[in-house]
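Recall from the previous lesson that a structure prediction takes nothing but the amino acid sequence as input. Here we apply that procedure to L-threonine dehydratase from Modicisalibacter zincidurans. The sequence below is the only information supplied.
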Amino acid sequence: MLEDTVKKILKARVYEAARETPLSPAHFLSRRLDNQILIKREDLQPVYSFKVRGAYNKMAQLSEAQKAKGVIAASAGNHAQGLALAAKQLGVKAVIVMPRITPEIKVQAVRARGAKVVLRGDAFGEALAHARELIEAHGYTYIPPFDDIDVIAGQGTVGMEILRQQPGRLDAIFVPVGGGGLIAGIAAYVKYLRPEIKVFGVESEDSACLKAALEAGERVVLEQVGVFAEGVAVAQIGEVPFAVMRDLVDGVITVTTDEMCAAVKDTFEDTRAVAETSGALALAGLKKYVQQTGVTGQTLVCINSGANTNFDRLQHIAERTELGEQREAILAVTIPERPGSFKKFCRTIGKRMVTEFNYRYADADSAHIFVGVQVKPGGEDRRAVADKLREAGYPVEDLTDNELAKLHIRHLGGGRPKEHFEEEVYRFEFPERPGALMNFLTHLPADWNISLFHYRNHGAAYGRVLVGMQVPNGDRYHVEEYFEKIGYRYWKETENVAYRLFME
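The prediction returns the following tokens.
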């Protein structure tokens, strides 16, 4: 299979639509990490993503009869744009079925390249089901985003270019993983020609389907998939990609939302490119690899796989960047409620930069303050700040890794009820579409009272929502049964220390 895949890569037809992208040195990052860092710039493709390679190569293999009937795909992202451009180049009719929650910028980009857009359903599964119905009705040929050997061969030309552009020392290549088409193509080509080069997959912690498959020894379906890095939000690794590369990859690195955001900033500072979160995924993994292994003097390559991000999402990315670089600590500190306490606290902090300070009078004895403090990367300085405050007699909770605190609490300071009452608190991901809130409320029993609701738009397909509910005792043990019917992803936060300190 390896030799056959390499032959297909060598014969792949991609350059009628795609371009050979540069391997750009990351000078600032190289100095900081004490390794030579090179970024493969797939964000410079005509559709700002590598996906055009696989889509075009697959379409180039179709018969004239298949081309005459047209092609179809279900996609909300980069595959849709790649297929639209490939179809336009080949003069083939293309239909793209997209979920209704797809951002308008992506819908317009697909239409601008001549494809017909059909908006159907609120999630990818519904869009895919409708695409299959259209195939039955019209005989379209389905062009998969990753689970196809010709698509893999097209993506594998990225690896071919890397070896040609870096013929000297090359120690490791870091590849973002969604369905696995890109890493399968790169791993096959690189391991066949230069097996000493390590190939690492990089996945978001909440969509690590390749890691799960390798651990299980077979493909598995994740129960839930995070959508922050929507370009790699896949619940199961592709069958064909997994067969190609399961014995070729040297490992999988998983990264957090904050680490991805920090990598977006790193990419911008070295290349002035604004990567999408999944586009910066490989760089985040590279940085984590260097941190964990302590390697120096090596030549490391990462793939910037795309730059199709919504402008209004950049605010949220910027907010999380300092945390991803471990340059900010978020702390909950209890101080006495008396004159001079705030001044004394600031004196204890010293000359450090305070990035955020939230406080509101709560009672006559003490106050809980939400404070952000600038620290040095690595974690030791963050622990030193907390230890110094504890030594001064302040109770401290480190909330730096607390999602509830980062997403909601820092924007809700002072929101306490006048009298105590029992409530259940949950965090949800709501689809960004009209009617999502009403769908949620409709499924709740009529005697449940909404006591807290906080929503922020992050420029993604899903919004983050915090909900507090007064639930009658008889329903307390059945709350999540109602949520399962709604189908939105959720986390229980009633016992979260950030909620207990600032919102209860």
